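pasting for the record
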Amino acid sequence: MREDFETLIYESAGGIATVTLNRPDRMNAIGGSMKDDLARAFFQLARSDTTLRCVVLTGAGERAFCAGADIKERADSRRTGPEYFMAQRATHQLIRGLIEFERPVIAAINGVALGGGLELALTADIRYAAAHARLGLPEVKLGAIPGAGGTQTLTQLIGASAAKELLFTAEHLTAEKALSLGLVSKVVERDVLGAALETARKIAEMPPLAVAFAKRAANAAMLAGLDAAFEAERYAAAMIIDSEDKREGFRAFVEKRKPVFTGR
């Protein structure tokens, strides 16, 4: 089975679904209908497939898994803090839904995974990275903060100190550095998608009910209190969404120049 969406491709065979983010000309950036497409792919197609045992999430091409939010689409946004706070609830509902998805999800990070792209990868149960991949949350460099769960899921995964260093410095990690931090569980020199599919096939051979409840149990510690944590993240992001620094950071990115921040 194959279904082409505006921003992704859904393919399913042998109990394994592959969801491919498909905006290679924009480095698979999150924009257009991608959030709605992801919701349809996971919560309609995948959830209704009784033969499904595992999902592999990847990006089209070799340059990017997902480069994050489409800055060109958002550079001129004039959304206020309260408007952002209310609108971002839907994003957090999507993120939480992906984390809680009943079947295991493997992210095959085939290139850069930055900002919202890394936040999307963090919803997966297992992450494999290509050797050339780069990962990071660069939002503070633009005068913003991660707003799609990254402040919470990253901290849960690698610990507060390491997460704060990445959040505060906006550093891009090599795949090997990400492996050392536990951000990914495997670095693959060639064919990261193939490696992910191989693991997916192993999972597909396991009893599905046991796997589903193992995932549910393993997620319990992270999900406890996540709603309140997301609320705090949304509030923090909303407080700076219409700041002068945020607007300057986005404009500078689009104009390919160094931003000048003023603390306002």
